[in-house]
Each structure stands twice: as C-alpha cells, then as structure tokens.
From TrEMBL:
One of its GO terms (biological process) is nuclear membrane organization. Belongs to the TMEM43 family. The chain crosses the membrane at residues 31-50, 312-333, 345-367, 373-389. This is TMM43 protein. The lineage of its organism: Eukaryota, Metazoa, Chordata, Craniata, Vertebrata. It is a multi-pass membrane protein. Keywords: Endoplasmic reticulum, Membrane, Nucleus, Transmembrane, Transmembrane helix.
Length: 399
C-alpha cells in the first residue's frame, strides 16, 4: 500500500508505504539469513587479521633491508655503471620532454599529468526515511527532495522516485580525461610507470590568463562554462576545470618545477622497482627533498597506520559477525521489552569480549613465525577480556 502526499513544490514530495508487521516465523527466517552472513563475515575477519600481521612484518623487514642497502647518489646528472641493479636514493626537479596539451580549450602546461574535469548541472535526489508502527502495521515515511548541483558523474534520473520535472541528460557532451607524460625524468634518470603513478598531488590550474576558447564557451573564474548564462545555469550545462600534478618546468604563473625524492633500483638510466629478500617491492616517491632516513621513517609510519587500520577493520568485522550469529537469541525474546533490552546488552558485551579475545589470539598467531615471544605475550593478553567478563558475573549463592 502506498500513499502520496505532495508538499506543493515540485522539488519535494512525501511517500508513505505500509506493510504488515512480520510474524515470529518470518523474523526467525530473517535472523537465520543474518546468521549465515555473520558466519561469512566472522571467517573473513580471521583471514584479514592473520594476513595483515604477516604483511606488516614483511613490509617492516623489507624497509629495514632497504635502509641497510640504499646508496645516495652524488649526482643526478650522471649514470654510473657501478650502481647498476642497486637500490639508490636521489632527489631533484621533475622534467618532461614536451608540454601536455588540451587543444579543445587552447591549454598547455609542462607537467607530469594534466587532468580535465567536466561537471554537468544536474538534478540530484535526496531521501530521508523514518519508520513507525501504527495499527499493527509498520509504516515508512520517505521524504524525497530534489536539488540542482554540479556533478562530475552522470546522475541517472530514471532511478528517481519522481523523474517528471527532474530529468537529466543521459551523457555529457564533453568527457573528462587525464593526460600523462610518456617520459618523466629526474636529471638523467627516467621514472618507471609505478613511480609516475605516485605523482598524484593535483592542484587546480588557474585560467585567469587564458582567453575564451570558443564562441559558445565562457570563462568564469577557473572554469570554462558551456552555458548561455553561467550565473544562472540550466540542467545539462557543463563547466570544465583543469588540474595538474608534477610541474616539470619553470612556469611564469606557477613557479619553478616540483622537486621529488625517489628510492628505487637503478637499471641503466631507469629507476625501477627493487625486489627485497622478504618478497616486497620498494619503489618510493615523496614530494620535496628528503634524506634517506626521513623517507624510511615516513614509510614505517605509513606501514604502522595501515596495520592498525586493518586491525580495527578485522576486529569490527569479527564483532559484527558474532553479533549477527547470536541475533537469534534476541529474536526469541523480542516480544518481552525488558528481557529483550537486557538480552541485547548481554549479546553486545559477549560479542565485544569474544571479538577482542579472538582478534588478539589471531594477531599472536600471525606473529608466531616471526617473533615467538611477542606472539606468546599477545596470546596471554587475549585471555584478559574473557577473565574480566567472567569476574563480573555474580557467583551463585551457596545452597
């Protein structure tokens, strides 16, 4: 059953749908499906936690190996044969052989990457839903509102609850793209594709010194507008902006070329990935001029952040999995309000303690082959949440 209530504005309307409150067997069936999903999530959390520890330790060992082997180059303008195949460190200004062009807009720049970003003025749908119970039925009230915004992706208005009056074009007349220089150098050395991919600090290009490229295109600020009136755009109008990364030549408007620091393997006059004994790959690039120690410190910090982020994700997946698998106990008593709330709190506490203990135990197993003593300590620590939880349970009175 659906009821419609219009607010009087074509940009907003409310829809109310209702359905019969699910019975016990139906809720039990839904819970069973959730238990299966919980089991899959629970098992995946073990894989995530275990492999993350191996990855973290392998990366740390690779970085330590790299730090012990790296050779700082005295000059970036000479390629010395004695460094062939070795891990080298160098810093200098980026250079590319030719500027990157966008002939459609009469724009060029000496940079590693040039990105054209196209946005279209489109209708966007927002929905806000609330559920409530009335006369034994569950009713859902959804308010749909529509607004016009600049979007870089085509918004499919066919999926709108009400497309009439909010129709978007199905495609853009101008497409976004990113041009990448085929050859990027630091001094006499050419960067591998993997190193070039790391140059991604995009900055918006000012268009203030450019003229309007066509009669039907108007420049406004740092945008080119395909619009009759950029101040009052209509649905389907386009605006185009440009971004660059890795300035590789002196520019009167942008300044001098960007400097970067690279650690990679020297192969002839190319800088390519270095494969460590631990099985990792080292090809590092950072903006600015950094020492060897600063680069490896940043890499260790990045590895630590990634490790903790994945640990948190693994714990959360385990907590959610256990919660879904034990949800059936909540469903069995959900018609008793007080009992239901107590059971819910108990299940959450149970999931928290078990997820914490099993996460610590899995992490300790991941360390077992690398650092057995730490693995043992973490394994002992995994018992603490269970002991704490058990100590809070009041002992049974003697009969």
């Amino acid at each position: 059953l659906q009821q419609f209530s219009d607010t009087g504005s074509r940009k907003e309307h409310v829809k109310i749908s209702s359905e019969t409150k699910p019975g016990f067997l139906e809720r039990l069936s839904e819970t069973s499906g959730g238990m299966l999903m919980g089991l899959v999530t629970f098992l995946l959390s073990f894989y995530l936690l275990f492999t993350n520890e191996g990855r973290a330790l392998r990366t740390a060992q690779s970085l330590d190996e790299g730090l012990s082997l790296v050779i700082p180059l005295d000059s970036i303008h000479s390629v010395f044969q004695q460094n062939e195949g070795r891990l080298v460190h160098l810093a200098g200004a980026l250079s590319t052989p030719k500027p990157l062009f966008d002939p459609s807009y009469g724009l060029s720049i000496q940079a590693v990457k040039l990105k054209r970003n196209v946005e279209m003025y489109q209708w966007v749908e927002y929905e806000d839903s609330t559920e409530y119970e009335e006369n034994g039925e569950i009713k859902k009230e959804t308010k749909y509102s529509y607004n016009t915004e600049w979007k870089s992706e085509v918004v499919n208005s066919r999926n709108f609850d009400r497309e009439i009056g909010h129709k978007n074009p199905s495609a853009m007349a101008v497409e976004s793209f990113t041009a990448v220089s085929p050859n990027v150098q630091i001094g006499s050395f050419f960067l591998s594709k993997g190193l070039v991919d790391k140059i991604d600090d995009f900055k918006q290009l000012s268009l203030s010194h450019l003229e309007d490229p066509h009669a039907d295109v108007t420049r406004g600020g740092d945008y080119f507008y395909h619009s009759e009136n950029p101040r009052r755009p209509e649905v389907g109008d386009l605006r185009v902006s440009f971004f660059y990364a890795g300035l590789s030549g002196d520019d009167p408007h942008l300044g001098s070329a960007d400097k970067v620091t690279v650690i990679a393997r020297q192969r002839g006059d190319q800088l390519v990935p270095y494969h460590t004994k631990s099985g990792d790959v080292l090809q590092i690039l950072y903006p600015g001029e950094l020492s060897v120690e600063e680069v490896f410190q940043k890499e260790h910090e990045s590895n630590t952040m990634t490790t903790w982020a994945l640990r948190a994700a693994g714990w959360l997946a385990m907590f959610v999995g256990i919660s879904l698998m034990t949800r059936i106990f909540y469903t069995l008593v959900d018609w008793f309000p007080v009992v239901r709330d107590l059971v819910n709190i108990g299940l959450k506490a149970f999931a928290f303690c078990v997820a914490t203990s099993l996460s610590l135990l899995t992490i300790s197993l991941g360390w077992l082959f690398y650092r057995p003593l730490w693995a043992l300590l973490i394994g002992l620590l995994s018992v603490v949440p269970i002991v704490v939880a058990k100590s809070r349970v009041p002992p049974k009175k003697q009969q």
